[in-house]
Amino acid sequence: MSTTATATDSTTSEEVTGEAARRRTFAVISHPDAGKSTLTEALALHAAAITSAGAVHGKGERRGVTSDWMAMEQDRGISITSAALRIDYGDCVLNLLDTPGHADFSEDTYRVLSAVDCAIMLLDSAKGLEPQTLKLFEVCRARNMPVITFVNKWDRPGREPLELLDEIEQRIGLRPTPMNWPVGIAGDFRGLIDRADGSYTKLTRTPGGATRAREERVDPEQAAQAEGAEWTQAQEEIDLLGEIEAHFDEASFLAGESSPVLFGAALPNFGVSQLLEALVNLAPAPEDPVDADGAVRPVGAPFSGQVFKMQANMDKAHRDRMAFLRIASGRFERGMVLTHANTGKPFATKYTQAVFGSERSTIETAYPGDVIALVNAAALSVGDTLYAGKKVHFPPIPSFAPEHFAVARAKDAGRYKQFQRGIAQLDAEGVVQVLSSDVRGEQAPVLAAVGPLQFDVVAHRMSEEFRAPIELTHLDYSLARRTDAGSAPTAHALSGAEVLTRRADGELLVLVHNKYRLRVIKRDNPDLVLEPLLAGGVE
Ligand code: GDP
């Protein structure tokens, strides 16, 4: 018996390792309006996962989904939910994890980045690096994550390509290594020269935009004649890139130090197939995960995965909490009974779903790099590990620096119990971080958020789900710093700042009004420990 079991195990392990190797799990980091939704559609379109653009993330399409949650999104015309989109492309399975795109983004946006192996940094050719892109890039940098850069909207007037590369290198210290080079300035886009083999793809605009662009391979000599001065300029710039040795380098790309750059325009589908090829050929497949003790669990080992996001009320028919889990190792089969590493309790997966865009469908099997949605997941929290076979426990997902703070109070004192339960639950799910102090008391916890939208979510859920409407009083702080109990000074020495305890992990945080006050506090308290919350510093 045991030999059969071993043979089966090793066959499974081989199968899983093979499946993991053909997966690419990534997210797009960008500033609102850079074209993330458009690019997502274009990628899916090119990969023929959908038949016409507009069927995946189209803002119009969302209107068809009915639930309290979606209603809130629709009111604001923004995306709160994070879902995964699976794109089958050749032999590869591309899992695109959606990062909520609004300026009011929340901690969820950051957590999604803990579940991917690579990011596409999407830039608007006219704008270059924008604030939200910079913040998200810092998270990638803190994890040494490989980043592929896509310069979008090349069909519109924009900046010089060399100037954009210079901005990337100067401002974020990421060394750009262009994979292709545009012929024709932004707004007069003629085609792309592949730097690896010198081949030329001529692009022809098709009317209507959202149809596949005509890309045609043209002999470079003919192209040189046809494109004239634009061709000569592109060649000169390519020569310059050679002189400064801006060549793709796998080791520094995988270490997050250099970034392959591609030019294109998502709307008319120019250069999108080149981006798909870059994902397949350059982006890493899921690696063997490392547990909290530093031990490696091969991707081919029995099932394990980590919850990176919790979501409630996505669908009226499933009025409960859902956990999004990224598979770290092994094959997932629906119906498996897993172990919840934090409690040692069993977790049944009968109703597991895959999440594609705004639709959900039941899933039967999934592999490392895939995202599954577990329903009835009230017992789970962000960062939790589920496994089969040998026990494993993954390190927690770091929480990010909050910048918005508000005091919550129950509107109706008679519903204090429900208030407490609701706040504890939202804390466990990581919707906001909950802070408290003896001075403020149990009845008035401070909520800390990365984006103010999180407060709306809390207020909405507290009244709808926990039937304990709340009153929020915004506080004038904008920074949080970690301190230690030994060094925590008196309120007087803190120039109006406040020391609070984070309930989830008991850490002491100092809340400060702004960076000028922070400077004064540091000057007046040279021995005070004041550390940024995220190593690598998203400030
Ligand atoms: P998101 O906020 O990043 O998801 O951006 P969207 O995908 O909604 O795009 C913002 C706007 O830019 C929309 O009006 C798009 O049609 C437009 N857009 C996106 N990509 C391109 C492009 O390559 N060329 C042009 N001309 N417009 C684009």
Automatic annotation (TrEMBL):
<dbReference type="InterPro" id="IPR031157">
    <property type="entry name" value="G_TR_CS"/>
</dbReference>
<dbReference type="InterPro" id="IPR009000">
    <property type="entry name" value="Transl_B-barrel_sf"/>
</dbReference>
<dbReference type="GO" id="GO:0005525">
    <property type="term" value="F:GTP binding"/>
</dbReference>
<dbReference type="Pfam" id="PF22042">
    <property type="entry name" value="EF-G_D2"/>
</dbReference>
<feature type="compositionally biased region" description="Low complexity">
    <location>
        <begin position="1"/>
        <end position="13"/>
    </location>
</feature>
<dbReference type="Pfam" id="PF16658">
    <property type="entry name" value="RF3_C"/>
</dbReference>
<feature type="domain" description="Tr-type G">
    <location>
        <begin position="21"/>
        <end position="287"/>
    </location>
</feature>
<dbReference type="Pfam" id="PF00009">
    <property type="entry name" value="GTP_EFTU"/>
</dbReference>
<feature type="region of interest" description="Disordered">
    <location>
        <begin position="1"/>
        <end position="20"/>
    </location>
</feature>
<dbReference type="InterPro" id="IPR004548">
    <property type="entry name" value="PrfC"/>
</dbReference>
<dbReference type="InterPro" id="IPR053905">
    <property type="entry name" value="EF-G-like_DII"/>
</dbReference>
<dbReference type="InterPro" id="IPR032090">
    <property type="entry name" value="RF3_C"/>
</dbReference>
<comment type="function">
    <text>Increases the formation of ribosomal termination complexes and stimulates activities of RF-1 and RF-2. It binds guanine nucleotides and has strong preference for UGA stop codons. It may interact directly with the ribosome. The stimulation of RF-1 and RF-2 is significantly reduced by GTP and GDP, but not by GMP.</text>
</comment>
<protein>
    <recommendedName>
        <fullName>Peptide chain release factor 3</fullName>
    </recommendedName>
</protein>
<dbReference type="GO" id="GO:0005829">
    <property type="term" value="C:cytosol"/>
</dbReference>
<dbReference type="GO" id="GO:0003924">
    <property type="term" value="F:GTPase activity"/>
</dbReference>
<dbReference type="InterPro" id="IPR005225">
    <property type="entry name" value="Small_GTP-bd"/>
</dbReference>
<feature type="binding site">
    <location>
        <begin position="98"/>
        <end position="102"/>
    </location>
    <ligand>
        <name>GTP</name>
    </ligand>
</feature>
<keyword id="KW-0648">Protein biosynthesis</keyword>
<dbReference type="InterPro" id="IPR027417">
    <property type="entry name" value="P-loop_NTPase"/>
</dbReference>
<dbReference type="InterPro" id="IPR035647">
    <property type="entry name" value="EFG_III/V"/>
</dbReference>
<keyword id="KW-0342">GTP-binding</keyword>
<dbReference type="GO" id="GO:0016150">
    <property type="term" value="F:translation release factor activity, codon nonspecific"/>
</dbReference>
<feature type="region of interest" description="Disordered">
    <location>
        <begin position="200"/>
        <end position="229"/>
    </location>
</feature>
<keyword id="KW-0963">Cytoplasm</keyword>
<keyword id="KW-0547">Nucleotide-binding</keyword>
<dbReference type="GO" id="GO:0016149">
    <property type="term" value="F:translation release factor activity, codon specific"/>
</dbReference>
<dbReference type="InterPro" id="IPR038467">
    <property type="entry name" value="RF3_dom_3_sf"/>
</dbReference>
<dbReference type="InterPro" id="IPR000795">
    <property type="entry name" value="T_Tr_GTP-bd_dom"/>
</dbReference>
<dbReference type="InterPro" id="IPR041732">
    <property type="entry name" value="RF3_GTP-bd"/>
</dbReference>
<dbReference type="GO" id="GO:0006449">
    <property type="term" value="P:regulation of translational termination"/>
</dbReference>
<comment type="similarity">
    <text>Belongs to the TRAFAC class translation factor GTPase superfamily. Classic translation factor GTPase family. PrfC subfamily.</text>
</comment>
